Structure formats: C-alpha cells, structure tokens
Amino acid sequence: MTALQTKGRGLPESPPAHQGQEQSAYVLSAIGIAKTYTHGVWPRRRYSKVLRGADLALRRGEVVGLVGENGSGKSTLMKILVGSVDRDAGTVEMSGSLGYCPQMPILYERLTCDEHFQLFGKAYGMGDAKIDSARDDIYEVLGFGDWRESRVEELSGGTRAKLNLGLALLPDPDLLLLDEPYAGFDWDTYQRFWQLTEDRRDAGRSLLIISHFITDAERFDRIYDLVGGRTVPR
Q1: pLDDT tens across 102-137, in order?
Q2: What is the extent of the structural domain holding 55?
Q3: Which residues pair with 224 in a beta bridge?
Q4: Among candidate residues 90, 102, 93, the one with its CA nearest the CA of residue 167
Q5: Rg, C-alpha atoms of the chain
Q6: Which of 24, 142, 152, 201 is 20 to 30 A from 16 in CA distance terms?
C-alpha cells in the first residue's frame, strides 16, 4: 500500500516518531468500513447507519487508540475487524496472529482461572508447558495469581476483567484488539496495564485500544476519533 493510495483515507502516510521503529508494513488495514443495522419490520422498519466509511491502520510496534461516544460504533468496528460481525462495505487486511479482548468478558462461571487458561490454551493450539509458562507470567504481570483456583462466579468484576485480558494475551499475539480493557481496573492494575502495553510495543507487538475517553493520550502512537461513522485522525 503506497502513500498515494492511503492519502485522505485516514491511514498514516509515514511511520510515527517512535524510537527504534523502522518503516514497516501494516499488520492491520481497514478501509471504507460501512455497517447499517435494520430494526423492526415493515412498515415500521428503521435503518441505523453506524459506520459510514471508517478507516484505520496499525503498523508493527504501534499502540493506536480509537475513541468515540457511547453508541458511536466503536464496538461494531472492533467486531468487524475480528470477524464476528459482517461488514456491508470496505476491506480488512491483517497479518500475524490475533488476540481479542471483548468489552463484556466471555467466561464460564463454574470454571476456575487456571481451567480457563488451560481451555483457551488448548484452543490456541498451545502445549501444556507453554500454557503454564504464559499463564504464570500473566498472573504476575496483572497481579491476580491468588485467584487462580477460584471459580469465575467467585471473582469480583475487576478480577474478571483481568482474566478476560489475560486470555487474549495467552498466545502472545502479534496484534491485540482491546475493547474498553481497563474499565474495571483499580489504579494499580491500570498502571500494570500500561507497563504491559509498553513492553509489548517494545517487543514489536501492535495494540488497538478502543474507549469512550482517553486521559493518557501521550501513551499512544496515534489516536482516531470515531465521529459520524467515520474515523478522524487526531
């Protein structure tokens, strides 16, 4: 994809100023994403245009933010990127492995944290030794190892959020898509999250973080605002 092709489409024409980062290909490129939801039946059928040509892109080793008000279409765009919702128009290209942390945790109430990691690790095709090593690192980084043998039904909302994020981190994906990842975090976990984010960026991993507000804009390489169904680079 050349600079000429991306000009005016909300994609960066040159890599951001990040120390040690070289020109690299996109790990995610979405162009002209459109989505309309249909509500009700005729003659009271209504159409809600949520996305009207949204664009965004990430390069290797970038942390990119997507910000918008509630109902602006952020989660719809995220679900389109991971393939759980069909788009009406536009293209999505992605390279490398993908991790996804949805806004609402998808967890099993009667399974423990350890059992979740084992279940998801097997689904990722990971061996037992790799699962154990990655799981223990996640417990330490996010600070919830004391709950490893507790069932989800016994966990607080904040600990569920940690587990939800940990499951997305388990296979060490090249690209991590996070939907409101720190909404239920306390201050200590919030700081741990950003240290984790910096470590992953330094390792060449890419992260897309969506939220309805951003207070630490300096932590991002780039930020898009989702307004009127379109992404606007800041």
Answers
A1: 988 889 999 999 999 999 999 999 999 999 999 999
A2: 1-96+206-234
A3: 66, 233
A4: 102
A5: 18
A6: 142
